[in-house]
Design a protein that fits this description.
Pfam families: CO_deh_flav_C, FAD_binding_5. The protein is α+β, with helices and mostly antiparallel strands. The chain contains 13 helices and twelve strands.
C-alpha cells in the first residue's frame, strides 16, 4: 500500500473543501470497497477524508417520504421498521448482499458508489478502460461469465454490483448532494450512474469533491407489495448472476402499474420501463410475466461466456413476479 494522508472532515463543508483541494483525495466512510482496492493498487488516493463523524447517520420520515443519511449503515437500513414494512424490496436486497460483518460497516452512499467486481478491473496487469482509460478491455475476449449483457459497449462490459441500488432505482430514489461551492442538488438515482460509452472511467455524474448527504425515498403506496430475488452461485456472500426487483399496484387480478429493475446483468442500476409497460393493464398471469421478461432483456448483448444470463434474468424476473403475486394472494 502506498503512503496516504488521513484527515477528518469536521463538517460537510470542510470535507468537500478538503477533497476538492486535492485531485487525489477521496471521501472515506465504511471503507469496505475502498480499502480493498487500495491494497491491490487499483486505486491510490493521496488523501482520505473521513466523513464518519458527520451527522448523516439517521433515518427520518415526513410527509414527503423517508430520508436516509449517507452514513446510515446497511444493517441499520435493512432492519429499520419503516423500511421493512413500507419498502420490503429494499430490505430484502440489502440483506441478500455481502455478509453481516460487511453490512455493519458499509454505508448507504458507499454501497451506491461501490466499484465493479470485474476481475480485469481488479487486476493491475490486465487491460481495463475503467481503470486505465484507453488501455482496452480484456473482459470482452476473456472469461466474461460474470459480466454485463445490458448497457455495454465495446469499451466496457463490467457489471455494476450493488443489490441495494436495484431496489432504490425501482423506488424512484433521489440522491441529495453538497457540491464543493456549497450548493446542493438532487439527482434521481436512475440518472446518477453513467453508461460506459466511450469513457467507462467516469462512472457517475458527481463532480470531484461532491458529497452525497442523503438518499430520499418518496411515499409509494404499492411499494409495500414489492420483492427482491437474487440468483447467485452460492447461497451467501456472493454477487448476483441475475436479480430482479419488482413492485405491483393491483386491482384484483389486474396490474394497474408495475415497477421492474434488474441487477447483476447491467453496467448500472437497470430500470426496465419496457417491462413495466407490458405489465400495466394486464392480468397477473405467467404469460404476462414472460412477456415482461422478454421485453426487459430485448436489448441484451451476450458475450462468449455470459449468454446464459439472458435466460437466467428472464426466469428470475418471472419468478420474482410470481412469488410476489402469490404472497399477496
Amino acid at each position: 500500500m502506498k503512503p496516504f494522508r488521513y484527515m477528518e472532515g469536521e463538517s460537510a463543508e470542510a470535507a468537500t473543501r478538503a477533497v476538492t483541494s486535492a485531485p487525489g483525495a477521496v471521501f472515506f466512510a465504511g471503507g469496505t470497497t475502498l480499502i480493498d482496492l487500495m491494497k491491490i493498487d487499483v486505486v491510490s488516493p493521496d488523501t482520505l477524508v473521513d466523513i464518519r463523524r458527520l451527522p448523516l447517520a439517521s433515518i427520518a420520515e415526513d410527509g414527503e417520504g423517508v430520508h436516509i443519511g449517507a452514513n446510515v449503515r446497511n444493517s441499520q437500513l435493512a432492519w429499520h421498521a419503516t423500511i421493512r414494512e413500507r419498502y420490503p424490496v429494499l430490505s430484502e436486497a440489502i440483506l441478500s448482499g455481502a455478509s453481516t460483518q460487511l453490512r455493519n460497516m458499509a454505508t448507504t452512499a458507499g454501497n451506491i458508489l461501490q466499484r465493479t467486481r470485474c476481475p480485469y478491473f481488479r487486476d493491475v496487469h490486465a487491460a481495463c478502460n475503467k481503470r486505465e482509460p484507453g488501455s482496452g478491455c480484456d473482459a470482452i475476449e476473456g472469461f466474461n461469465r460474470s459480466h454485463a449483457v445490458l448497457g455495454t459497449t465495446e469499451h466496457c462490459i463490467a457489471t455494476y454490483p450493488s443489490d441495494m441500488s436495484a431496489a432504490l432505482v425501482l423506488l424512484d430514489a433521489v440522491v441529495r448532494t453538497r457540491k464543493p461551492d456549497g450548493t446542493t442538488r438532487s439527482i434521481p438515482l436512475e440518472d446518477l450512474h453513467l453508461l460506459p460509452g466511450d469513457t467507462p472511467e467516469r462512472e457517475t455524474v458527481l463532480e470531484h469533491g461532491e458529497l452525497i448527504t442523503h438518499v430520499d425515498l418518496p411515499h409509494l403506496s404499492f411499494a409495500r407489495r414489492s420483492h427482491y430475488l437474487k440468483v447467485r452461485d452460492r447461497a451467501s456472500y456472493e454477487f448476483a448472476l441475475a436479480s430482479a426487483a419488482v413492485a405491483l399496484d393491483m386491482d384484483g387480478e389486474t396490474i394497474r402499474a408495475a415497477r421492474v429493475a434488474l441487477g447483476g446483468v447491467a453496467t448500472k442500476p437497470w430500470r426496465c420501463p419496457e417491462a413495466e409497460r407490458v405489465l400495466a393493464g394486464r392480468r397477473a398471469t405467467a404469460d404476462s410475466f414472460h412477456a415482461a421478461a422478454d421485453a426487459a432483456l430485448a436489448g441484451a448483448v451476450p458475450r462468449r461466456h455470459n449468454g446464459f444470463k439472458i435466460e437466467l434474468a428472464k426466469r428470475a424476473l418471472v419468478r420474482a413476479l410470481s412469488e410476489l403475486t402469490a404472497r399477496a394472494a
